[in-house]
Design goal:
Blueprint (H helix, E strand, L loop, with lengths): L9 H10 L1 E6 L20 E4 L3 E9 L2 E10 L2 H9 L3 E5 L3 H13 L3 E5 L11 H13 L2 E4 L2 H9 L7 E3 L24 E5 L8 H13 L5 E5 L5 H10 L5 E4 L7 H6 L3 E4 L8 H8 L4 E4 L5 H4 L5 E2 L4 H12 L14 H15 L4 H7 L2 E5 L1
Parallel strand pairs: 1-2, 1-15, 5-6, 5-15, 6-7, 7-8, 9-10, 9-12, 10-11, 12-13, 13-14
Antiparallel strand pairs: 3-4
Helix pairs in contact: 1-12, 2-3, 6-11
């Protein structure tokens, strides 16, 4: 769930702000995103407001480990901001309370609203009864949808939403950040360097990565692991690496978004062993940085961005070792940049969708003060 302003979305928000009077409503920064600082000030042409409400932490446990750490945002203040701003169109993420508020506003004032959805059949397989009931209600209520990509569209179809109501785009990052030639953030000598970037929680699949790496090192293969991120499982993973006698393992703290291009320059391949992700923006970032990627089948982006040789099952130890061996040998197929949609492409698709729901060309709407509210 994206309940805060994500650095990856800033270029898209900026493009929308150049065309519309844009208000971004959010529920506040989450404590597990400490490297996302001052993001709210990064969209100069938009108004960014935090809506009044609460953040409730949710920790999913599995086998005594922190499988995931998320936050539920209960933010009734969205309603007040909507009434005050009076948007002519709304884009609302997710299917929760804020989407109910957005759809209520849209129904009362006869305004178009889009529900931007990222979940997949895999990520939503354990949704509870109350959550399923709420999503069924929203699926019947909302007329316009935006999906992250193929797998998210598949989930929306399972709710009975027809394709003609879905604008299928992708999750994206600001590609210009990764195009520049810069120095590596870390100078690691034992090559190749296999990078994992993300939260250190069980959901990200770092434990099976450590086991597969130990098995390959026992075969005599030499390589380094670079693990960039923080989380409640960091100490446990460091102890596991020591017990497995892993060599050349480097744990580094989470890096701010502007430093991530240099992090990718420090590696020879990205390993993304997630056990559950609605998309996986690290895959986009690695592709744009020119790195080959070994991607878990449980990432929402897997089939859309990668060939079968780059996809594996992290729950299958033998398959993991086989594919990881290819990464160490430098035999992973190169990433195909043409599979990644750019921010200008996505912005153009969203702007066209908003235009089609409102009267008059965008230039006239801008002069007339047409407002668009995007609520994260």
């Amino acid at each position: 769930m994206i309940n805060m302003v994500s650095p990856a979305r800033i270029p898209l928000y900026s493009a929308l702000a150049d065309r519309f009077d844009l208000l971004i409503l959010h529920g506040g920064a989450e404590s597990n995103r400490s490297s996302w600082r001052e993001v709210e000030e990064s969209v100069p042409n938009a108004r960014v407001k935090r809506a009044w409400g609460w953040q409730l932490p949710r920790f999913r446990k599995a086998r005594g480990k922190t499988f995931d750490n998320q936050y539920t945002h209960i933010t009734p203040g969205y309603a007040w901001h909507l009434l005050r701003f009076g948007p002519d169109a709304i884009i609302t993420n997710e299917m929760g309370l804020r989407t109910v508020i957005a759809l209520t506003y849209a129904s009362l004032f006869r305004k178009p609203a889009w529900v931007w959805w990222g979940g997949t059949l895999h990520t939503e397989r354990q949704a509870g009864r109350l959550r399923r009931a709420l999503r069924a209600l929203i699926a019947r209520w909302a007329e316009r949808w935006i999906s992250y990509g193929w797998t998210s569209t598949g989930y929306l179809r399972s709710l009975g939403i027809p394709d003609e109501r879905i604008l299928e785009i992708q999750n994206a990052v600001g590609e210009h950040h990764f195009a520049a030639t810069i120095k590596p953030a870390f100078n690691i000598q034992a090559r190749p360097v296999l990078l994992h970037a993300g939260q250190l929680i069980a959901r990200k699949g770092v434990e099976p990565l450590l086991h597969a790496s130990a098995a390959l090192q026992q075969e005599g293969l030499e390589f380094s692991l670079l693990l960039v991120g923080d989380g409640p499982e960091k100490a446990n993973l460091a102890r596991l690496a020591a017990r497995l006698n892993l060599k050349d393992v480097h744990f580094k703290a989470s890096q701010p978004p502007e430093r991530m291009p240099a992090v990718y320059r420090s590696a020879d391949a990205l390993i993304f062993p997630t056990l559950e992700d609605v998309w996986g923006l690290v895959a986009n970032e690695a592709i744009l940085s020119g790195l080959p990627v070994l991607c878990s089948r449980y990432a929402g982006c897997a089939q859309e961005l990668f060939a079968p040789d780059n996809i594996f099952d992290p729950d299958n130890p033998e398959e993991f070792k086989t594919k990881l061996r290819l990464a160490v040998a430098g035999q992973l197929p190169d990433s195909d940049r043409t599979r990644v949609k750019t921010t200008p492409q996505l912005a153009s698709e969203l702007i066209r969708a908003i235009e089609s729901s409102l009267a008059g060309p965008v230039e006239i709407m801008r002069e007339s003060g047409v407002n668009v509210s995007h609520r994260t």
